[in-house]
Request: fold
Amino acid sequence: MIENLSAYIIWSFAAVTISTVIFYLHAVWKTGQKTFFLLTAVVLVFLLAVHAWLAFNGFYLVQTIPSRFFLGLLPTTVILLVLYFACARRDIPIQSLQILTLLSVIRVPVEIILLSLAREGQIPQLMTFEGRNLDILSGLTAPLVAWLAFRGGNVNRPLLLGWNLLALGLLLNILTNAVLSLETPFQQFAFDQPNRGVLYFPFIWLPAIIVPVVFVSHVISLRQLLKHSFRNGWTSRIQNIRQLKINKNKEQF
Reply:
């Protein structure tokens, strides 16, 4: 753990991480697919424990090529995606999409905690909203988007598509800056204050749990929205073709 760091920051971040997991599991539960929910719950609890134990024992602080940072980020992302594509065989209901949208609210407290870590000299300022990190906008706009996109029993798919793409872009932006600020041979930014804080417990849960969950939430939402749009597009074309044939037959008759 980071020495002399306020317990309030540590416990606040732990609470945000648990809230992220609960949010995501709630969205998965609303799909009505028990296997998907149970496997996802077991995997996330297991990964929380494993990454906590590894970070507590200094595993991620050892400098290697590639950085062990990726051993936190990539496995969780891949596993969650595999579980989704393997288990979620039906369309995601509107309730799940709405919860996945609201899940981004957790990005607001995450950004506040990152600012605290920067002021404690644990991460560079560019990883905060005072620097290059605008990810807080996703969290601030999530409630408004969830309200506008799902009100009246209808789904505003263009709004959701645009917002998810923008929020995903902001996530990838801060992730890129975080990776290029690590103390590795490939470091490009923040040489005066490298990105060290996220390699300690419990902040390892940011790249190992929170970022993968948020990323996969956007992937699920975008896939569902695009699949529905594609399906509706082809349905409309087929109906138009059929109507043209009917009209043509009537004219011939």
